[in-house]
Amino acid sequence: MSYLKLSSLKKTYPNGVTAVKDIDLEIEKGEFVVLLGPSGCGKTTTLRMLAGLEEVTEGSIVLDGKDITHLPPRQRDISMIFQSYAVWPHMTVAENIAYPLKLRKMDKRAIASKVEEVAKICKIVDYLDRYPAQLSGGQRQRVAVARALAVNSKLSLMDEPLSNLDAKLRVSVRTFLKEIHRNTGATTIFVTHDQAEAMALADRIVVMNEGRVEQVGSTREIYNECGSLFTAQFMGTPPANIQKVALASSRGRLVAAAGGGEGAMPLDLGDRSAFPGMEGLIGNEVFLAVRPENIAIGEPDGVNEASIEIVEPQGAYTILVTRVLGGEWKIMLEGDVDFRIGQKVSLKIDPGKVMFYDAQSTKRISLS
Amino acid sequence: MHVSRRSFFKSPVWFLVPVVVYYAAFWIRPTISVIIESFTDKSGAFAFSNYVRLFSQEAIRTAFLNTVLFTIGSAILQFVLAFALALWLNRKFRFSNLVLFITLIPMAFPPAAVGILWKTGLYRFGWINSFLCALGLMNPANPVDWMSFRNLNAVMLLIIVDTWTVLPSVMIILLAGLQNFNKEFEEAGWVFGANKFQTLKDIVFPIMKPTIITAMILRMIAAVQVWLIAVMIFGYNVVPFLVERIAYNVDVITFAKYARKDAYTISVIVAAIVLISVSMYLRVSGDKQKGGEIT
C-alpha cells in the first residue's frame, strides 16, 4: 500500500466548472513529486484538495493508511508553502515559526530549540526578531520553508513557491529546496507550471492537462518518451517540432510527406530498419514529433535540404528556425554556431529519437 | 545660508498658500474665537465661570453620561455586528451582491428621514409593536409605549436606531479591508493547525487592525457628536446629549442669558472629549504599526 493514494479524485465548483476530472495517483514515502501543467489544468486545485482547503467532490485521499478526504486542514498533519509565502505580517520571523508549534501544545523550551534548529537550516538566524516587511522576497521564502520544516508533517505541499522570485533567485532557491528534501526525506508535492523547475526537482513528474493526468514518470521518461502529443508539445524549451504527416516508403527509407501535400519537400527520416514495426503504418497519417536537439546539420547533400530563416543565439546553444514540410521547425545546436540567414543546409534527424503519435487518439505509437 | 531670489519664488511651498489661507480664515479663526469665548465672562475677562456654571447644571451631567454610554454602547454593538456581516458577505455566496445592496440601503436615508421612520414605529400603535405582535412576542392587549422611554432605556433605544443607520458604513470599511486581505494568511493558519476561531483571533484580527482602527475612530467621532436622531425621535430636552445641548442653546433658548456662552463652552468640551478618546483608543489598540504590507 502506497503512502499517499488519490483515488478517482474529482472537483466540481458550485458554478459548475469541473477543475479536476479524475485523478488517480500513488505516491511513496519520501518522494518528491511535481504536478506540472499549464494554467487551468487542475494542479493547484488538486493540491488544495490535499491540503483540505478545497472540498473534494468525489473520490478519496488516503495518507499513511488514514482517510483524510473530508478532514479539516488542521487534522491532516500536513505543511504547506504558499505562492505568496503567507508569512504572517504581524508576527516576527521567530513567532511565525513558533505559532504552529504552540498550537500543537509543545512546551516553550522545545519550541525555542526547534525554531533555532530550522532557522539554522534555512539560514535566517539573524532575522528571527524581524518582521516580514523588513525582509526581501527570498528571505520571506526561507521563513515559509522554515515554518513548514518545523512542524515535521507527514506531507509537505508547495504551491508554486518559486513563482514570485526573480529568475536568478529562483534557481538558487530551487537548489536549496532540493537540498532540504535530500536531508529531511519529507514526502513532498510541488505544483508548478515551469517545466525547468519540475525537471530539476522531481523524483517523478505528473503532467496534468484539463483536469486529468497526462503522464507520470521520471524527468527522463517525461522528456524523451512523451506518452502523448500534449506532453511532447508542453515539455522542452523550445518544445518538440510537431507535424501531421503521411508515412511512405521510398527505396528502403522511411519518408514523411506533409499532410495535404502542398508541394513541400518530403522529409527523409532514415533507413527503414531503424523503425521496426512501422510497416503497418505506411500510408497512414500520424503526428511526427522531433525534439530540436535531435536534429543535426550538415552541408547540403540533396537530402532534407532546408534554408535557415532565423538564428537565435543563446550563448550555450543556438536555435535555428527552418521550414520543414511546410511548417516552422526549430533546431537546437550546441555552442555559439555561426549561420547566415538564407543559408542552405541538410537536416540529419536522429532516427532513434523520432516519436510518432496516433492521428486520432494523439497517444504515442511505440516502435516494437 | 544664502537663498537666491529665484529659488524663493519658484519654491513649490507656494502651492500650499490657498490651503493655509482657507484654514486660517474658516477653521483656525473660528476655533480660536470659540475657545476664547468659553474662557471669558460677559465683560471679556479671563474666567472659568462658564465651565463652573455648566457643570452645576443637572442636564449637562446627564448629557455627558448619556454621550459616554452612547459612544461605548454603539461602538461595541456596531463593531460586532458589522464585522460579522462583513465576514459573511466576504464569503461570496450566491446572492451576496444583492444582500450587500440591501444592507447598504439605510446609508441612503438622511437622519431626519431615519427619525420619522423610527418614530412611526415607536408609538403605542406603531409598526414595531405590530411587528412584535405578529411574531407573537407581544400581547396586543398590553403594548409597550417606546416613546415614553427615558434615561438609560432611551439611550439604548437610540443606540439601536443609530446602529441600524450607520452599520453599513462601518461594515463597508471592514469589508473593503477583508477583500484586500490575502486569503493565504488565513489558509496558512488552518493548514498549520489553527481552528476557525484561532485563525480569526490570532491572524485575521491582528492583520486587519489598521482597518478596524480606522472604522472605529470614524464611528467614535460620530458617536460623541450624536444629537439629531435623539431630537428627531424624542424632541429637545428629553434625552440630553452634549451636542444636543449645543443645538438646544443655539436653537431653542436662543435669547437666554448664557445660551451662546454655554454653546461655545460645550463645543470646546466635545472637541476635547473627541481628541482624548481617539488618542486613548489609538494608544490602547494601536501600539506599534509593523509597517508591513497587508496583502
How are the SSEs placed, and which strands pair?
The complex is a heterodimer of chains A (368) and B (295).
Chain A: E1 4-12, E2 18-27, E3 32-36, H1 43-51, E4 58-63, E5 66-67, E6 78-81, H2 93-103, H3 108-121, H4 137-150, E7 155-159, H5 167-184, E8 188-192, H6 195-201, E9 204-209, E10 212-217, H7 219-224, H8 229-234, E11 241-250, E12 253-258, E13 267-271, E14 285-290, E15 295-298, E16 305-313, E17 317-324, E18 327-334, E19 344-349, E20 355-358, E21 364-365
Parallel strand pairs in A: 3-8, 3-9, 6-7, 7-8
Antiparallel strand pairs in A: 1-2, 1-4, 4-5, 9-10, 11-12, 11-14, 12-13, 14-20, 15-19, 16-17, 16-19, 17-18, 20-21
Helix pairs in contact in A: 2-3, 2-4, 3-4
Chain B: H1 5-10, H2 17-38, H3 49-55, H4 58-89, H5 96-104, H6 111-122, H7 127-134, H8 151-180, H9 183-191, H10 196-224, H11 228-234, H12 242-252, H13 259-286
Helix pairs in contact in B: 2-13, 4-8, 4-10, 6-11, 8-10, 9-10, 10-13, 12-13
Features:
heterodimer, A: 368 residues, alpha+beta, Rossmann fold, OB fold (Dihydrolipoamide Acetyltransferase, E2P), 2 domains, six-stranded mixed sheet, six-stranded antiparallel sheet, 8 helices, 21 strands, elongated, B: 295 residues, mainly alpha, MetI-like fold, 13 helices, 0% strand, disordered C terminus
